[in-house]
Amino acid sequence: MDKKKTGSLKAARTTASAVTHVVLTALGILWLIPLFYLIVQSFRAEPGAWSSTFFPKTWTLDNYRRLFFETQFVQWYLNTLLVAVISCAITTIFVLMVSYAFSRIRFKARKPMMNVMLILGMFPGFMSMTAVYFLLKILLPNHFQSLASLIIVYSAGAALSYYVAKGFFDTVPKTLDEAARLDGATNAQIFWKIILPLSKPIIIYTILISFIAPWCDYIFVSFIMSGVNDTSMYTVSLGMYKWLEREMIQQYFTTFCAAAVVVAVPITALFMWLQRYYVEGITGGSVKG
Amino acid sequence: MNPLQKLAYYVVRFFTGLPGALADFFSGMGRGIVRLVKGTGQALGRYFGGFAKGDLITKGSYFVMGLGHFTRGQVVKGVIYLVLEVLFILYMVLFGGTYLGKFFYGFFSGGTVGNVPTQDFWNEEEGIYEKIAGDNSFKIILYGVLTFLVILFFLMLYFRSVAESRENEATVKAGRRCPGFRQDLKDLTDKKFHLVLLLLPMIGLLMFTVIPLITMILIAFTNYDASTEVPQHLFSWVGLANFGDILGGNSAMSGTFLRVLGWTLVWAFFATFTNYFGGMVLALLINQKIVKWKKLFRTVFVATIAVPQFVSLLIMSKMLTYGDSLEMSGIIVQLFHNLFGVDLKFGVDIMTTRIAIIVVNMWIGVPYSMLICSGILMNIPQELYESSRIDGAGPVKTFFSITLPYMLFVTGPYLITQFIGNINNFNVIYLLSGGAPGDLLRYTDGAKSTDLLITWLYQLSLGVNRNYKLASVIGILVFVISAVFSLMVYNNSSAVQKEDEFQ
Question: Which ipTM value was assigned to this complex?
Answer without folding.
Answer: 0.89
